[in-house]
């Protein structure tokens, strides 16, 4: 049965593969044909009517809501009702799935072969899967996985087919010729990426999704983050689909809806280099059959293990209790359009953030993620020229392993040789030579001309951003104590109230980078204090947070973990303040910032490559819009923005104390030196004036 989020017991400190079942182990002992053609006997939602795909589409087109919207559009546009209904039918045909068991079996056969080639193991927590199987029979179920790879789209259906659980219909944002047709027959329904203000399209989509939910036709799967994360870091949730699936409950059309967060963790992501290139502005290759053939080389690579953690089913009824004014929904007939109230939007926003945080807490941290955290805090010249000594990396990784366990993370640490094997797995990023670790520096043997310095920076940035993405898989564990460590460093204060104020400021600035549940700042601060005290970094009294000598190493690590974000934001604040114009376009902003960052990296004044990432740059714009330092010009078609330089400068000044890399003693010396020079010149001027006067 679905349970309230507050009733969920905290996960064990360390999960090993003993808690999970490797579903590929049995698949390797059986034939692929035998697997695909076995009896498939799922137990559906007990209240679901028997509907074919055509029955579902007919129910959508004949619904009172869609008929009302069709008549309304016909009146607004002067078109006939029949013409608008034909348009709605065409939209539905383009959108709807065509789930067929035969194609599910074909996909099962294909995926069985592919997954056995790509992965050593696919681990699934059977307890979560059993709870899902039970929940599907009791209420409409919404499956909400995180989204890190195109494999996410396939793996959930593969697992559910394997264990006789109804295969989901899946909201997808792409449609690839031929392959798109196969996926449609495997349960995918397609949503345009840009819907805009197309009233009819929105109405068809809304009714299609809600008919699936109301009838319990099948489990519905969608990504609350909206898009695949190119940084392997959780994205701020998009609320459109979440609002759609919950509305039947808000309107009283279903008794309850069960939400199932799913955490998918990869040792190595198939698209790792493509993701880094996209972040650097290289266009994503179009999905096509040719592209799939070109990608066939991935079958020769080792991608380690995958963990799929089905979270405990969450009851929308219990989660929303006390947060919704039901009388608002009783005033308007259910079949009429209804704009959600501010109260409802706040509830949906809170719930979406809760789901993403639950996904984060359910993910497994790999040893490589810990090693990536440490490698990115190593001087760049060490990784490219001298090499980092292997024993230093392993000792520090074991130290970090203890820290993440203290912080309550789920850790995948299968054996004592895991550090050696994980470095070998990530040979595209680092290589182990003569007991030292080096970053891979790709060279093109076919190239005749030497690389320009700027090209060299971009080529190295690909490898660094790949490393960054794996660090990001562990960031959620460190963010809250990391923000507190940063607040301690910046404010040089021990008072809890002062630290809490700055903690909230940093949460606000970085709320597009990290996931913070709305209204939980106090709990986040208390959690950060508790974790730092638990690992011996600080002592917490009623009024103060006192740094301990034994905690300096932990605080330094956490502070350096957030340094690239602070560096990146400060650089972009500087760019906006120094820019002559007050109006700029996103099309100008991204390459201009990238060019400025490249120059600073070459001069040695900037040490982070993350500022080159388009996702980081867009997050800064979003943060400044939220802080009202930048406003988007609504009438513009080119994503134009107007900057309030004074507001940007104020935000940058608060962070500036931390960003400046010059030690305090040197800054003090330079300040004194400036004063001495000033008074010396003043004295000389006075002396010259006297001489001239006397002469």
TrEMBL record:
SUPFAM superfamilies assigned: Glycerol-3-phosphate (1)-acyltransferase
Annotated transmembrane regions: 666-689
Pathway recorded for this protein: Phospholipid metabolism
Subcellular location(s) of the protein: Membrane
Claim: Manganese is one of the keywords in the record: no
Keywords assigned by UniProt, alphabetized: Acyltransferase, Membrane, Transferase, Transmembrane, Transmembrane helix
Alphabetical GO biological process terms: ether lipid biosynthetic process; fatty acid metabolic process; phospholipid biosynthetic process; triglyceride biosynthetic process
GO-annotated cellular components: mitochondrial membrane; peroxisomal membrane
GO MF: glycerol-3-phosphate O-acyltransferase activity; glycerone-phosphate O-acyltransferase activity
Record carries keyword Calcium: no
Residue span(s) of domain Phospholipid/glycerol acyltransferase: 141-267
Pfam annotation, one family: GPAT_C
Protein name: Phospholipid/glycerol acyltransferase domain-containing protein
Organism whose genome encodes this protein: Astatotilapia calliptera
């Amino acid at each position: 049965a679905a349970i309230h989020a507050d009733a969920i017991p905290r996960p064990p400190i360390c999960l090993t593969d003993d808690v999970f079942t490797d579903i590929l182990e049995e698949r390797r002992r059986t034939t692929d044909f035998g697997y695909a053609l076995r009896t498939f006997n799922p137990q559906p939602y007990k209240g679901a009517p028997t509907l074919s795909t055509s029955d579902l589409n007919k129910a959508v087109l004949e619904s009172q809501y869609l008929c009302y919207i069709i008549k309304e559009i016909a009146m607004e546009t002067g078109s006939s009702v029949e013409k608008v209904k034909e348009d709605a039918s065409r939209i539905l045909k383009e959108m709807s799935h065509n789930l067929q068991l035969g194609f599910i079996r074909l996909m099962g056969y294909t995926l069985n072969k592919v997954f056995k080639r790509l992965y050593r193991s696919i681990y699934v927590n059977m307890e979560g899967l059993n709870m899902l199987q039970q929940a599907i029979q009791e209420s409409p179920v919404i499956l909400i996985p995180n989204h890190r790879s195109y494999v996410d789209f396939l793996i959930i259906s593969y697992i559910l087919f394997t264990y006789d659980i109804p295969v989901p219909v899946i909201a997808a944002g792409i449609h690839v010729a031929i392959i798109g047709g196969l996926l449609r027959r495997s349960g995918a329904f397609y949503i345009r990426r840009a819907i805009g203000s197309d009233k009819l399209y929105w109405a068809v989509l809304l009714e299609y999704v809600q008919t699936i939910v109301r009838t319990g036709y099948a489990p519905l799967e969608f990504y609350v983050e909206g898009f695949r994360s190119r940084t392997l870091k959780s994205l701020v949730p998009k609320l459109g689909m979440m609002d759609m699936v919950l509305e039947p409950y808000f309107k009283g059309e279903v008794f309850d809806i069960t939400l199932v967060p799913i955490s998918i963790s990869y040792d190595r992501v198939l698209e790792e280099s493509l993701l880094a290139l996209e972040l650097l502005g290289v266009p994503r290759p179009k999905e096509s059959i040719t592209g799939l053939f070109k990608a066939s080389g991935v079958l020769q690579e080792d991608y380690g293990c995958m963990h799929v953690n089905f979270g405990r089913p969450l009851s929308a009824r219990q989660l929303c209790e006390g947060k919704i004014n039901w009388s608002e929904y009783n005033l308007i007939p259910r079949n009429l359009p209804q704009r959600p109230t501010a109260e409802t939007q706040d509830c949906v926003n809170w719930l979406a953030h809760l789901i993403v945080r639950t996904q984060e807490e359910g993910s497994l941290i790999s040893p490589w993620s810990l090693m990536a955290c440490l490698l990115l805090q190593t001087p760049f010249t060490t990784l490219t020229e001298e090499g980092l000594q292997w024993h230093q990396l392993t000792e520090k990784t074991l130290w970090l392993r203890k820290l993440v366990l203290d912080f309550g993370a789920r850790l995948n640490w299968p054996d004592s040789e895991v550090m050696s094997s994980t470095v070998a797995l990530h040979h595209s990023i680092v290589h182990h030579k003569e007991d030292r670790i080096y970053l891979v520096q790709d060279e093109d043997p076919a190239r005749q001309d030497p690389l320009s310095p700027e090209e060299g920076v971009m080529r190295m940035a690909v490898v660094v951003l790949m490393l960054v993405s794996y660090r990001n898989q562990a960031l959620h564990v460190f963010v809250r104590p990391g923000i507190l460590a940063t607040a301690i460093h910046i404010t040089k204060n021990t008072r809890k109230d002062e630290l809490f104020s700055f903690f909230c400021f940093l949460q606000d600035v970085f709320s597009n980078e990290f996931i913070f549940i709305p209204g939980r700042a106090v709990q986040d601060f208390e959690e950060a204090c508790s974790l730092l005290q638990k690992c011996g970094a600080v002592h917490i009294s009623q009024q103060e947070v006192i740094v301990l000598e034994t905690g300096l190493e932990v605080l330094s690590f956490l502070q350096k973990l957030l340094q690239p974000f602070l560096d990146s934001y400060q650089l972009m604040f500087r760019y906006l303040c120094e820019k002559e114009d007050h109006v700029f376009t996103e099309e100008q902003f991204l390459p201009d910032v990238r060019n400025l960052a490249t120059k600073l990296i070459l001069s040695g004044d900037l040490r982070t490559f993350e500022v080159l990432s388009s996702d980081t740059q867009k997050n800064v714009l979003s943060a400044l819009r939220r802080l009202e330092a930048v406003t988007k010009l609504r009438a513009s078609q080119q994503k134009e923005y107007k900057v309030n330089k004074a507001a940007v400068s104020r935000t940058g000044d608060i962070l500036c104390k931390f960003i400046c890399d010059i030690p305090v003693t040197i800054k003090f010396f330079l300040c004194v030196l400036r004063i001495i020079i000033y008074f010396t010149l003043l004295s000389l001027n006075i002396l010259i004036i006297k001489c001239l006067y006397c002469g």
